Amino acid sequence: MLNKLPLIVRLFIISLLTIGAFLFVKPSFAQTPTPDITTGWVRDQEVTFVGKTATRANGFLEWTLSVENYRWITLPEGANNNPIQSFWAIVRNIVFVMLSLFVLGAAFVMIITRGQNLTVMKFIPRFIMIVILVVLSFAIIRFLYQATDVIQGFFLNVKDPVTGQNRNIGPQDLLFIAFDYESFRGYRKLGIDFDESAFISLLLVKLTAITYYVMTGLLLIRKIILWFFIIVSPIFPLLFFFRPVRNTAKIWIGEFFRWLLYAPLFALFLHGLVNVWRSGIPMSFDFSKVGSAVYPTAINILLGGPGQQIGLNNSVNLKDTFALYVVALLMLWVVILLPFLLLQIFLDYLSNVSIAESPVIKKITSNSWFNKAYGGQQPPPGSPPQQPSPFGLAKSIPFFNKRAMEIPTSRTTSTLERASLTNLQTVRETKDVLRLANLSIPKMKDIARYETSLMKHDTVSRSEISRFHDTLEKISKPTTVATPVDRQKFTTIKEKLVTQQKKGDKLAENVLSATKVSEEMGNKTKAVTPGQKQASLTSIKEVKLPHVNQVQQVSIEEYEDVRKMWLENYQNMETPIGPNGIPTDKHSFIQSDIANITETINLLSSDNQENVDKGMERVANILPFLLLGGFSKTEVISYLKAKMEAAKTVIASVDAKTEDEDTMVERRDETKSGQAEMVMHQELPTDEPSVESQNPDEKKDDDGQNPPGSPPSAAN
């Protein structure tokens, strides 16, 4: 249990227990107590020490739970200035300086990216919201503090059983150990028969004092932490509105609410504890033998549980009264620790919550003003892209065909909103069912990854595909599963999916359709006659892609990611092996793929249902994935267009590379040909005799050489 508490709480409790261990070690005293011969009781300094410590802890708890001190802040009388608010103002001014730097940085980003990553219309409302939250941060958090004070004060208030007046819970309602600190003197009874009883009684007093110190320490630590939270509250909006540090904001907010809500929960449980103690702890305690002493009274600090009238003959002297005191002490520790455990559950849930996926946020972002200011939600893939604006609010996709994919935006958006709001609970339940089968809703990138695995030659990719189809087939026919445990598991999964389908959950319907298609594809593979294969194809034709994806919303960026993935696949992937056992030429493979994709798109885009069925047959390999993701026909066409765009880009690159290589080969051949002609020209003999052989008496210049440019002389 201690491991689930925050680090600061664990350190505090461990430190306090360690200090208590040293604090309550029996001290060495110079004087030896002198026994009282007549009664057997002697004055004992250890009992005095422990009793005074318990009295101090008792008074500390009373001070902490008083009306003036449970509130988040109490200013001294005559104080006009709130020191916390003054410190907050300093932090607020620092945040304003940081905001000015953010403005400069945002302007720089808008200039560099020309409004593609950040726009003026998107930045200004966000900036204004941040400024408002920074200015109002003190007032907002102070309001939350005061609200929790009201709740805490309501539960801390109880009626005094003696006077009938309302007052705050105090030590007198708990394990009340209080003496006059100055006049208290401790006594114990000597003898080996009383040593064990004295030790246990002193141990219970020490544990009670430690419990009170832990209780008061946590309440005071909470108050101090809340002071510092309100001081740094101007930083909260900066963390919340900027994506890179948004996770940090979630942690801050989680810790803030942990300490904020601890006191109301503590007060609630403490109030319940007092009421239970006054009514009687609902356990079997036998008090009929009170007055007799199984465990003798050995110290003059008398102990008793809730509702006990203690005395020398009733001080945890029986196993029932001793158990009552221990149970009461454990209940106090539960009151201390249980709020932390419950708030930890809240924090774990908060860390997994996506604000963007909240139905409230989706409803807000669907507002027309929000769409204009922030760019809104991305249009569904079936809608035509917006025209580029001066501020870069729209983003065009080169492979979108307006004529083939024109769908009214308003109808599509409203349908998605209705699906997300009305089917949210059923879809969540179906997702939990899918987790039992180790399945999840695929994204567009998963479709590309799955189809790539189908084209690879390695056994790992094939085994992953086989496991996926095997899981779907087990859901479709759980009776065929070999082991009884798995058979029961998949039977339960299918029953839950059928139940969800009857509730109108489209995701469950898609999963069942995917299992049916996967089973029929397996039957097609195992079929030995044309009639069996045709029966499987006929069953696949009966599956229809939805007009609108009611399971998830696909953003434009996902199609761009698909295009990049296929771009990398076409560049690096090994081409399939041809009928002759040799890998296909990359150019021929990509060219064939482009033609196949083009024909599939035309078939799926056709108004003729027969052509659409033929197109469905062409995507049969990835059809279970498409059904599981709830992808509409328009989204499938957009996926194919992204794939085709990548193929065209790669084939253009391949053609350019081939053309460059051919040009280099031609130039290399021309160079070699020219060099061969020169060599041949040099090696061939000439028909005319040399000049020297024909003109031995040729006229020489003064140096014995022919003058340059002079014609050869005639023969004699």
Give the topology, please.
Elements: H1 7-23, E1 41-43, H2 45-64, H3 67-70, H4 83-113, H5 120-156, E2 157-159, E3 166-168, E4 187-189, H6 192-231, H7 236-241, H8 246-279, H9 319-352, H10 359-365, H11 368-374, H12 409-422, H13 424-436, H14 444-455, H15 459-476, H16 484-502, H17 506-526, H18 530-541, H19 556-572, H20 586-604, H21 609-618, H22 623-628, H23 633-683, H24 691-694
Antiparallel strand pairs: 1-4, 2-3
Number of helices: 24
Strand order of the largest sheet: 1-4
Helix-strand pattern, N to C? HEHHHHEEEHHHHHHHHHHHHHHHHHHH
Query: Which percent band covers the strand fraction?
Result: under 5%
Distance between the termini: 130 Å
Structural class call reads: mainly alpha
**Biggest pleated sheet:** 2 strands, antiparallel
Low confidence ranges: 25-33, 368-421, 686-716
Mean pLDDT: 76
What is the C-alpha radius of gyration, as a whole number of Å? Answer: 43 Å
Helix content: 55-70%
- Global outline: elongated
The domain tally reads: 2
Number of β-strand runs = 4
